[in-house]
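Quick one: co-fold with uracil.
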Amino acid sequence: MSKIPIPLDEIRQSVSQCRSCPLVDGRTNVVFGEGSPNARVLIVGEAPGKNEDLQGRPFVGAAGKYLDELLGVAGLRREEVFIANVLKCRPPGNRDPRPEEIEACAPFLREQTRTINPEYIVTLGNFSTRFILKTDRGITGLHGQLHMAGRFKVFPVFHPAAALYDSKKREALENDFVTLGQLLKSETINGN
Ligand code: URA
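Sure, here it is.
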């Protein structure tokens, strides 16, 4: 039997009170995520960076500006998707998330996903892809193809921050967002 989804505001409240891992000591703000609560597409990044920690909003720095452009390539606006991260607090110096931090934070993203109930989850980079697909495979072999995680269609892509200064990844990322746009459009037209 499926559980009743928890309202987003309740999840937000729990996130803001969370003290489950040591990242609480270095955070300025938690970054719950933002966007449409009825989004067809959930975007999942890795963890807040410096700007996100200061503003309490996801993807507001250079990678965020690029993400907005990529969404445009797929025919999406930032306000119509929901953008969240695996970790809700910034790791010091933007180091990689640790397994115990991911484990502590995991229930929040799981509940956000159940409540938003998107059709697509677009995972940005290795950490979110491995988390959502429960795989050890890397993003290089997984990006640009549709995968399933339970009832969700999962579309992994390179992380925009990794692509900013790597023209090969940038090309792949932009092509993948074109593909995403086509997937979204074809299924809207077919009414699926
Ligand atoms: N990188 C991420 O993975 N998430 C953010 O919110 C910002 C940068």
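If it helps, Residues 45-49, 52, 58-59, 63, 85, 161 surround uracil (CB under 6 Å).
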